[in-house]
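Problem: given the chain below (538 residues), write out its structure.
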Amino acid sequence: MRNGLSSDLIARILGVAPKYTIAELEQKFPPRNLPDGAMVTRAAPSPTGFMHLGNLYSMLIDKKLAQQSHGVFMLRIEDTDTDREIPGAVDTILDIVEKFRLDIDEGVLKTGLEKGAYGPYTQSQRKEIYHSVAAELLATGRAYPCFLTSDEMNEIRETQTKAGMPTGIYGEFARDRDMMPDEIIAKIDAGVVPSVRLYSTGDPSKKIFCKDVARGSIAFPENNDDVVLIKSNDGLPTYHFAHLVDDHFMRTTNVVRGGEWLASLPLHIQMFNMMGWAAPAYSHTATIDKIDDETGKQRKLSKRKDPESSVANFITEGWPIEAVLEYLFNLVASGYEEEKVKNPLMTIWDYDLKLKKLSTSGALFDWKKLEWWGKEFIATLPVYDLVNRVMEWVHEYSPQWHERIGDKIDYLTKILAIERDNPKRVRKDFVTWKQTLEEVAYFFDDIFEKSEIGNQKSEINKNALDAFLRGFEWTDDKDTWWNKIVKIASDIGTKNGDVAMSLRVALTGRTNTPDLYSIMQVMGGERVIKRIGKIING
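Solution.
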């Protein structure tokens, strides 16, 4: 380990004197007073793009673990990658957290508003804390200023790649690792702003054993890469350093993250050991995969190619958030579906999640299975709740349907009430709020006028329709209505079902619908007569 640097030189390297000592930070953010076994978890999305389904998957686990252990669930915004940050992304993250009802105990509530005693919970506002810890590392020789330029680092990577070596700043490539104070001062006086790098003491020929809660103890080569801790361009930390500082001083007990971070585990354990801090318990979950349409092979969901990777898409398309969460939770805890079938009133918040049983292999995204969860959930809703949920979606995401429905909420309620009065045989053809409206769209004249009955014209018997219309009474009860259909079939020499099919197609444009009598009662006599008459005279 190199010799430490003076406080004056550290202040020049960082551009400011550190505000805190480590002891002061320990006092400012003391260990939490929580029950034994309580877990402190954190969701830590980065505002560099849309929220990926994998983020929601991990966030659900974080929330569940804190909830069931009577712990703390935090929302931390990791916005230190300023070059890739997208305007409005933080608001999108907060909106998704709110819509999926993953209520936080601490963290960012909305832009400029936080709750909790361990903040700030936005990393760009924690610069003084990071610099204070970096100053300690520089003072004790566990970190050093590095003046390598981007071009120089690119040359190093090219050299390493050509030689088949691991890329990074280590060994002979760590040029500034043992730079003397007078050399550092000369560089700074020349206007060169350094980054701060870890002074790694790892030896990749040796093994480090790192524990993953679900995977067990895993052997890795020790880390010898002098990774950047503080960036030169903006003075903000890298993910590796920010996560070290934040998880310690926010007193995080459990980190749940995607399997792609498993390779970073030896570095992170090394850094916690270097500081003399207890590392949180790490759990690296399965990535969410899909079967590629072109190759037929399983691959990770792609932000660029797969619409199902964006959480926002599930909201705008009208998926019930409960169904999405239950589907994801079943990927997390494979036994949940079986228990749900036994106890339909159970929710994910009632099921005890075992960390050691988390899935660690690729979880396969399946639209059909998600649709099943959507149908099952919507089938449990009383009709008025269903109408309210549909209308909530309409108000926010579908101005066309908002205008179409207008003040006809009672009409929509009657439509959605069809075949929902039998608890033993509730219809299960509604999947999303959007699809629910599409499923009943034929009730609305402007859509029905545009529907193509022509494809089903072979199903229509105009003689049957004419006979039905001549004897039609909207006030007929169901038995009387059906007896008329039976008589028409007998009179014209066809089957009862053929007469009913003619009516079904004429009124809905479809060959498969819920109970036809109920449909006609909801449509009303005037609409029934108009639609059948148009077919007869068309």
